[in-house]
Specification:
By secondary structure, the chain is α+β, with helices and mostly antiparallel strands. It has helices spanning about 5-10, 15-35, 55-80, 85, 95-100, 140-150, 155-160, 170-185, 205-215, 255-260, 265-275, 285-290, 290-300, 310-320, 340-345, 370-380, and strands spanning about 35, 45, 50-55, 110-120, 125-130, 165, 190-195, 220-225, 230, 235-240, 240-245, 250, 280, 325, 330-335, 335-340, 350-355, 365, 385-390, 395-405, 410-425, 430-440, 455-460.
Length: about 450
Amino acid sequence: MELHAAIAAYHDLLDDDTARESYTRLATAMRARGMLVGKARDRLVCEVLRPRFVTAAQLGLLERAARAVGQAIQQVGAAALADETLLAPYALSADERALLAMEPGYAGAACFGRLDGFLDPEAAWCWFVESNLESPAGIAYEDALVEEFRALPVVQAFEQEHPLRAFTLWRRLHALLLDTWAAWGGRGTPTVAIVDFREAVTMPEFVFLRDRFREAGTPTLIADPDELRYDGHELFVEQEGHRTPVGLVYRRVLQHEFLARYDLHHPLVRAYADGRVCVVNPFRTKPVHTKLIMALVSDEDGPAWSLLDAETRAAARAHVPWSRLVRPGPTGYQGARVDLLHFVERNRERLVLKPNDEYGGSGVVLGWTVSDDAWRAALAAAQRSPWVVQERVPIPEEPYPTWDAAGGLRITPRYVDSDPCIFGAGAALEAAGCLTRIAATPLLNVSAGGGAAPPTFLIEA
């Protein structure tokens, strides 16, 4: 079914009464599950009343492009582990370099992640602007919201005429973890520890995944890094005086946050370095998850271009916007040679500045939203530490319904991004599904309080 017609058909099923009922059901379910975001954890992860719909043509383009771009990112990231020319711009600390040097027991710099980008409603193009291949959130929220939306009478009425398919991404993640365990040399079924700080805002995600993994036959628990112990042979989780041996750690704690609290003598690092525990993703994701990887992949004159084959070069040209590390010197732009800093200063309307190693939209400067003076100040700051400049790409908009007691049912435009997940590495890499974030402003981020994350459904033919 054509996308715009499907959206219109769904909206035709809504009035003030169905909107109020749908909002009440969703809000109650999300609060019960703890699916709240923002600094105060007081905002629903999704406040709109319609799922995101994608067509088969859109999904096909998104997954094909994500697979090829994901392979390009992994090729360059794996090479950077042993190539100082590629690694130097990351400005890594001594501890970060030490972690890179530790062998995880399986190939590659990462085996699971998410690409963030934008997808044309007519499936004419898609662009990937960031790589999140360290410890991305979203899968469990997506699958949980699929369950809650499918329970809504309005969605059930829509599906009578327009069947929908969800992606059930937690199953892909579960299979990926077990496949990596086997590649690491593990036997049987491991006990899995989902490791992050107890105060992590994404704790409801961990609960969802723990419960689903257990239902699938994999013993799973949630652990804070402070609860890990290592005796030289096994890694344990110690909770309430009881020690549980762990074979596989699903690492949700971000590396830079981990290193801000601990050193390399932490039990998790020691067990990892000794090859006594399988950690997914490994402590060597820096080259593939920061903003700089997009600059390395897109620069045809840079040191990484020769590492790509014909397919991944074509994908980089078609699906990665022009991106560069901010530093003095010449570079290529649309077949011409330009002085990078001069070009960036003069072209703010078409450019974005991003700090290399931040997340959640922190520090991002959209050139077309600021003054010349603010842009020059941002450019000056970007030269003092690793930053990336990237060309602006189109951001699609779609109408989404909301309800509140003051205004009733309202349908307003939202910017929409499209974020496929990638699983595996090399020739076995697969892209699957689409996580969605929407916002009223071009800076789309849910955790920072600027957007929402409706579930995504494929409209069946």
